[in-house]
């Protein structure tokens, strides 16, 4: 018999979305957007070049790529709750330890290893898996809301703390907030299993009167429900045998991983062309609003597209990013900041949601964490090298132009490959949901 839980009237999956939203707001607020605000004051005080400072972000990418396959497997096998709790605790501790950083090795250890690893454990694979498990037909909306509460909205707070209290105290405050708010949210609102284990269906769909009470039968009912949107359960081994798996990895490496790498340099870029740190932070917040709308809108549209059409939507969003970069390359002044950043953030916002949506629609729920984790291992090299490459290009040419040109070309190339690759065919044998590999 199913062990029923007394959940609130609101479908419980939405509380996982609330939890993920906070972790995205505060976690990405520091590791993605906030690092750009920390970049100049930190490197100036410690005497680091831009390339050397960027290495910390790359170390985080390297660590994330190494541990992601294990994190994905553990999340699928044992559930996301305990992994997320550990990640949030580690994240808070890492930010607090930044107060004591006084050397290059300690900076790399704390920000690169501890904070970088914790970012993936706290608000990456485990939380996305939890949401993907509880939503199928509404997965795009759920993930869109989760990433709609963007870290860019925390950037003005982080910047104000840096300007008025210094970058060390800003990190301590960030760590305390993560521990005091993030830990309780994960403890109460992240569940170990998909909703069928609690007598519920994905999306809050109604279980008909007289429906089976056996867990196995509920799981079968959930599989049938997901099949209504062409979602089939792949094992990890079955997924990696499809061309779509590898093309999505390449696309993620260039579009999404590169976007987070570029975030390291956006704030320095804006101040280089004449903006004050406060105005640069305000600009990032304003354009971040367009990304927020795009994330929600992208999820809304994705839920209404057939599986075979999702890749065209993703490709179009990627071309928006390339178009924004091209505008900036033609006139690198404050006047084109918004024409550059708005389409770039819209495209990136759409794809931020679609990468998880398409992963679930292509390969199903049972190995969602394993598929996402294994792909992170392959996207890691580019994500690790790009921040350093951008810093090196600036250090040697006093401009980001060459790096942006190369990046725009990669965006167009990978978009063409994505559009030409159809969704994977159903595996010859669909196994039990407990068989992950």
Sheet with most strands: none
The CATH topology assignment is Growth Hormone, Chain: A
Number of domains: 1
Q: Output the radius of gyration.
A: 21 Å
Number of strands: 0
SSE arrangement, N to C? HHHHHHHHHHHHHHHH
* SS class: mainly alpha
Percentage beta strand: under 5%
The average pLDDT value, as a whole number, equals: 85
What low-confidence regions span 5 or more consecutive residues with pLDDT below 50?
none
Q: What is the helix content?
A: over 70%
The CA-CA distance between the termini, in Å, is: 27 Å
The total count of helices amounts to 16
Overall CATH architecture = Up-down Bundle
Return the CATH class.
Answer: Mainly Alpha
Briefly, what is this?
By secondary structure, the chain is an all-alpha fold.
Task: Describe this protein's structure.
- 75% of the residues lie in helices and 0% in strands.
- The protein has 16 helices and no strands.
- Helix 1 (13-46) crosses helix 11, helix 6 runs antiparallel to helix 12 (277-302) and helix 13 (310-330) packs antiparallel against helix 14.
- The longest helix has 34 residues, at 13-46.
- It is globular.
- The relative contact order is 0.16.
- It has one domain (13-197, 222-420): Growth Hormone, Chain: A.
- The chain is mainly α and 437 residues long.
- The two termini are 27 Å apart.
- The protein has helices at residues 13-46, 50-78, 81-97, 104-123, 125-134, 139-148, 155-165, 167-189, 215-227, 236-240, 243-272, 277-302, 310-330, 337-363, 368-397, 401-420.
